[in-house]
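Fold sample X.
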Amino acid sequence: MSTGARRILANTGYRLLADAGSKLASVAFYVIAARELGAEGFGVFTFGLAFVLLATTLGSFGQDSVLTREVARDKKLLDRYFFNTLALKVVLCAGSLAIAIGAAVAFGIDPETRNVLLLLGPAAAIELLMTTCFATFQAFERMEFTPVALISQRTLTAAAGIAALLAGAGVVTVSAIYLVGSVFGFALALWLLLRRVARPALEVQPARWPALMRAAAAIGLTSVFAVILFRVDMTMLAAFEPNDVVGDYGAAYRLLEATLFVSWSVSSALYPVFSRLTPTSVPPVGFIFERGVKLGTALTLPLAAGVLVLADPLVETLYGDEYGRAATALRLLAPAIALYPLCYVAGSLLVAQHRQRVMLRIYAVVAAENVLANLVLIPWLSLDGAALGTSISTTLVAVALVVFTQRMAGGVDWRRVGTGPVVAALTAAGVMLVLRDTFPAAVVAGAVVYLGVLYSVERLLYPDDARTVLDLLKRRGATA
């Protein structure tokens, strides 16, 4: 196995560790919050997070992607980008949050929701500063530091939040704890960067900001449309339905989000590599793209199959009977779980190869479609309509991205990408269906069967791909 392949898989592993560990802590926090706050209180918290993430969209206007792409090519450029990116994010987030929260207050939101927004808004902005540190780790391909910062932050937030919830704390106190956790996470990420990776010069030059914004414009606008696509359903649902329905949908959507770390991990590891390769390089960029999509698909398809078959016992086990309506919504979100890796990896390829305008057009059109679809689906099907709209829109994005990236990659062998994961997922789904009345047994048996069938199919049809992963595992075991 080549050094480049080992590095990609290792960095994917580091990002998987970071996001898996942090997601475990976050899921525990959200599950306890849903149970202790009730559907109405959890609806306020879920709405607050969706609102501030929409409001701070300009703060993540593609600056991190530009930093990673350019610094991956020339490490000396970190001095130009790092602190200017941080300062620009602060200015953009402060302005957009002031306008958005001010408008919400003017429209008459209740005092509790206002206080939640005032706490979660700065938290969202500070987490965007932390992602700039992660973008730098990514550019230097030193992603082993990402799990240290991210897991520490999420674990602190979850532990303190759960303790407060069990002691009877309300949604405002929980939001304050979330803010403290964000501050801690950014401070730790910055310390790791300065001590273990690089010390960028403390240069803040506002005169450079317009150029940075222009370079990031297409990526940033794509991010805006992506946030609209994946977040507007929650805010639109809140306009049509009471807080308890929003809480039910929030419970389902949090489980969808708990799977996204796979897509982020794979695309984060591949992005700096995509930035250096071309269609004629050795290896060609298309080869890495195909293997990246295959890895992401193999990791998420069993999750989607499990959600389809086991949505009801999963929701009941995690949230309790109060959230029964979330099960159907979760099942309708399953296609999005399976397609996110393709969307993320293809998007990373387009940006790395300076084809971000293609992605901008795709997300702009589908974001408009999503808003219009929600205007029809939510009044008709309530939270199930919001979930259906998300999966429809994700499918449209995936299909469009495949059309464009396949040309750039010089053709993709989709049989090689999908045969093993699809056969293994279908087999595992059948086993889980038989055992669905015994939830723990269904989960364990499904996982074992999936891994066994996937390994058998890959070993038979594509032994080189299976050998690459096994070689990495053996290497990690030998050095552990």
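Fold sample Y, listed below.
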Amino acid sequence: MLILLTGLISSALLRLLGPLVIIAALGVPLLFVLYLWQSGLFRDMPGHALVIAATVGAALGVSWVLLTGGVLARAYGIPMAAGFLLQNLFGAGLVVSVGGGILMAVPAVVVRLLKPPTREALDGFVIGTLGALSFTAAATTTRLAPQFVSGLIDDVRPLRLLVESILYGIAVPLTAAATGGVLGILLWFSPGKRAGEHPGAVRATLLFFSGLVAVIYSAIWVIDAARLPKWPQLAMHILMALIALLAVRVCVQLALLHEQPDPYSGEPVLCMHCDRVVPDMAFCPACGASSRASSRSSRSIRRESPPVPEAGKPGTVHGNV
């Protein structure tokens, strides 16, 4: 993220419009794909589910920008996102902003309707976030590419480019990623015994945070329509992104605490987070990390090959990671 931010700032101050548009549109989605690769998700999740989520999200993003392009053009206000303010079209502006937020949930809904083989909450987080980031990447690229080709942002001052590059390269995709993740968690959540006698209360809480999506995107439209100075506007967008990130963090915590855990093997396992040999439990008794915060392939290997004492070294164990 620091490298991404450095690239945005450098490209804006040096007026390198090509790299600026590419980094703003694809920076955060690329980071998320690297996260999937680093976490081993490509081995654990069906490839077609990831492809469907990304494809549906990208197609909806392009279609939404093209569909609303005429309305947006009449309310042109920001050089890097023509007509994003919609200050003169109250009803249409609200529909465009909230409608875009709702469409980000469609990829997760489509994949969920295909009945994926696993129902882990973090799988839903991945699908929802990937679909939302694909939507924003495609929408931002579609929105900015014609302006770049036509030279509409050639005369914009570097400082304004800097503010808007951070807005559309950091704040907007992070907000989308968080809101998509919340909706994905809600769709994939399967309550277990930890939910107690009232699993509906957990679902209701997750549903509440999902409804926060519409509130966040309504607030974003109000911020844009208010035509605030550039720095206060950026600060408010960052605040909305932080609220969305906090919401998804709470939902991850709730889902991991109350969803059905993996069957216990009865053997000790090596915790991937603290490197200690601990009982096979939903949460590590040493560091508190969730066992499902590591990949399914890693969990399977560690359960199939539990740590065993080393010969001649009492109390010392080793095992396969």
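Sample Y note: Residues 2-258 form one domain.
Also: The beta strands are 268-270, 277-279, 308-309, 317-318.
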